[in-house]
Design a protein that fits this description.
The structure holds two protein chains of two kinds. By secondary structure, chain A is mainly alpha-helical. Chain A contains 21 helices and two strands. A two-stranded antiparallel ribbon of chain A has the order 1-2. The longest helix of chain A has 32 residues, at 151-182. In chain B, helix 1 (2-20) packs antiparallel against helix 2 and helix 2 (25-45) packs antiparallel against helix 3 (68-98). By secondary structure, chain B is mainly α. Chain B has helices at 2-20, 25-45, 68-98. The chains are: A mainly alpha, B mainly alpha. The A-B interface holds A 128, 132, 135, 139, 142, 146, 150-151, 154-155, 157-159, 161-162, 165-166, 168-169, 172-173, 175-177, 179-180, 185 and B 16, 20, 25, 28, 32, 35-36, 38-40, 42-43, 45-48, 68-69, 72, 75-76, 79-80, 82-83, 86-87, 90-91, 93-94, 97-98, 103-105.
Chain lengths: 510, 109
């Protein structure tokens, strides 16, 4: 039963341990950090086996019964997110070991604390506790974002920090209103109390619900709250940007959790609160993200805009508000996260080999190991654009199939398909500029760069990228069991009474 | 008392929003601080304003004060304190690196 809290405690203890070991040499720190993340993958897989039968595992902290104490809840959605987080953390960390972790102190400590915040946010069943875990993951992310320093990074970091602090304040206001009316912070208990609300409180509850939506939309980088993302992601170091591919998904997770659980009572005060906003905003996000990707002058920036576009696609699927739509979105979520992370890592690998041209999209020198790197870029581009036979295609196909019955089918179909075409054009342009339109006389520019990269064998550099692409391939090969699991997940989400009963029954049996 | 407290919260929020929309980092940090003060007061007020009651159910006392918002506010104060310290250091670092205290780092001081 204590398995549920292990993914929260392990990174915290590993982080504290790493802080104590900071005088002990790099090898020990790296081993402990990788070991901790690896165990998190194992724990998440173990939890997945436990919840795949449909059980909702509840863990009351301090053994306080449910509505009074804080609970951790592991249902299918939470464990799915845990697994994605731990996998992406593993490959980002392996790539960071190539040198990013040397560019400043405490990299591994912050990395573990970031995972502590992420895992806690996915598992908690208490709204205020969600706020606390948000703050933990944010303060770790501020430091990781600035890791290594530099003018552009600091500048982008300041914007990221300030906008998120405003977001946190709004979160507190929303939590305050909800507590003031419902008298509880346990999400299951809130859901039970919302349905029995008197009429005069309904406008306040809706105001609080929409305020929360604003906060989560900010985290998810939904238009018009997306402006912090491109600069922040484009200027941080590649392994951190890869890990941050999951950060926008925390916002998506929170939207799914809160609006399927607390505000999902049919014909209740919270019904159809965000539907009017979610789908149009998601489609606009998709368009703006792709336009940004087409207009980008560097590959980092292009990938960052593609992250925004993937949030748009994902929230389009969620905005359909049908079991099939949510299942499609949950399939697209790991795909887009892994593909974006692979693209960030690959960008760094390419940029290191182009000397002063770095990641800029203009014809530059020949990239060494061109066949291997070019091949990986080709596969990543196919994934990001959503071409068959890889997981991007299956994800988009499922989303469009789920949209067939929707009244706004023409808009959804048109926007998703046309933006896919534009993504393909943008990535083709980047690929041909980087790998085909090479200018031989600029060869000398990379001579110095070749020396710095020569120390690491190419295979160690591409192995994390191949790993991430392999995960996308696994999503294709295992598509049948994965989709089966996700359909059950969306069924569980849209039937919140299971969740409410599982949490509140815990309190009654004690 | 309710009117006074809500007036204070409103004024603090208005100041916070105005200041955090300013162009230089110092007013922005100050604005974020005001906003977090407003949020803390608001959280406290959401437990209803009670005077002279213990934060626990006791036979001797007539009523009780909701103790939970006080715990929430305490947590929120600690978090916002840490965040403010962080953002001040970051603002100073930005000033040193870009030579300007403008949030976009473009205006000449």
């Amino acid at each position: 039963m204590h398995l549920i809290i292990a993914p929260v405690l392990l990174p915290l203890l590993a982080g504290i341990g790493l802080l104590l070991l900071r005088q002990q040499g790099r090898f020990l720190q790296r081993s402990l950090s990788v070991f901790s993340v690896f165990i998190q993958v194992v724990l998440a897989s173990g939890l997945l086996a436990r919840v795949s039968q449909g059980d909702i595992l509840v863990y009351s902290l301090g053994n306080w019964p449910a509505p009074f104490g804080i609970v951790l809840v592991a249902d299918r959605l939470a464990v799915w997110m845990l697994l994605i987080t731990s996998l992406i953390a593993l490959f980002s960390l392996l790539y960071a070991l190539l040198g990013t972790d040397k560019s400043g102190r405490h990299f591994h400590v912050l990395f573990q604390l970031q995972l502590f915040g992420l895992n806690g946010a996915f598992l908690t069943g208490d709204l205020f506790n969600l706020f606390v875990f948000f703050e933990i993951l944010l303060i770790a992310s501020y430091s990781l974002l600035l890791h290594g320093g530099g003018k552009a990074r600091t500048q982008a970091g300041l914007h990221f920090v300030v906008i998120n602090l405003v977001g946190s304040t709004l979160f507190l206001f929303a939590v305050g209103i909800l507590y003031g009316i419902l008298g509880t912070l346990n999400m299951a208990d809130m859901a039970a109390k919302v349905s029995a609300l008197s009429v005069e409180h309904i406008p306040l509850i809706r105001a609080a619900g929409l305020l929360l939506f604003g906060v989560f939309a900010l985290k998810a980088a939904l238009v018009p709250l997306h402006l912090w993302l491109p600069a922040a992601y484009a200027h941080t170091s590649a392994p951190i940007a890869a890990l941050f591919a999951i950060m926008t998904k925390v916002g998506v997770y929170s939207i799914l959790r809160v609006y399927t659980l607390i505000f999902n009572t049919p014909a209740g005060p919270g019904a159809n609160m965000i539907e009017a906003w979610l789908l149009p905003l998601a489609l606009i996000t998709l368009v703006i993200g792709i336009l940004g990707a087409m207009a980008s002058s560097g590959l980092y920036q292009q990938t960052a805009y593609l992250v925004i576009a993937s949030v748009g696609t994902l929230l389009t699927a969620v905005g359909l508000n049908t079991p099939a739509g949510i299942a499609a979105g949950l399939y697209y979520l790991p795909h887009s996260t892994f593909a974006a992370a692979a693209c960030f890592l690959l960008t760094n690998t390419i940029a290191m080999r182009r000397g002063q041209f770095a990641d800029r999209l203009e014809s530059g020198p020949l990239v060494s190991h061109m066949r291997l790197i070019g091949g990986l870029f080709f596969v990543t581009a196919i994934l990001l654009a959503g071409l068959p036979p890889l997981s991007g295609f299956i994800g988009k196909f499922m989303i469009l199939k789920a949209a067939l019955a929707h009244s706004q089918l023409a808009w959804i179909m048109g926007v998703v398909l046309i933006t896919s075409l534009f993504a393909l054009i943008a990535l083709t342009r980047s690929g041909s500029l980087l790998f085909y339109k090479v200018q031989a006389e600029r060869e000398s520019a990379v001579a110095s760069a070749a020396v710095t990269t020569g120390s690491v064998p190419i295979i160690r550099e591409v192995l994390p990228i191949i790993g991430l692409l392999g995960l996308c391939l696994a999503l294709v090969i295992l598509a049948d069991p994965v989709i089966g699991y996700l359909q059950l997940t969306s069924g569980q989400l849209l039937e919140p009474s299971f969740y409410i009963q599982a949490v509140l029954a815990m309190g009654n049996t004690r | 008392m309710e009117a006074l407290v809500s007036l204070i919260i409103g004024v603090l929020t208005a100041c916070g929003v105005y200041l955090s929309l300013r162009g230089r980092t110092f007013p922005v940090v100050l604005g974020l601080t005001f906003l977090s003060y407003a949020a803390n007061l608001f959280l406290l007020a959401m437990g209803r304003l009670t005077i002279g009651a213990p934060p626990i159910i006791a036979d001797a006392a007539e009523g009780y004060t909701d103790p939970l918002p006080q715990a929430l506010v305490l947590t929120a104060i600690v978090i916002s304190f840490a965040m403010t310290a962080f953002v001040i250091v970051l603002a100073l670092k930005t000033y040193k690196e870009t030579g300007s205290d403008h949030v976009d780092g473009m205006h000449k001081p």
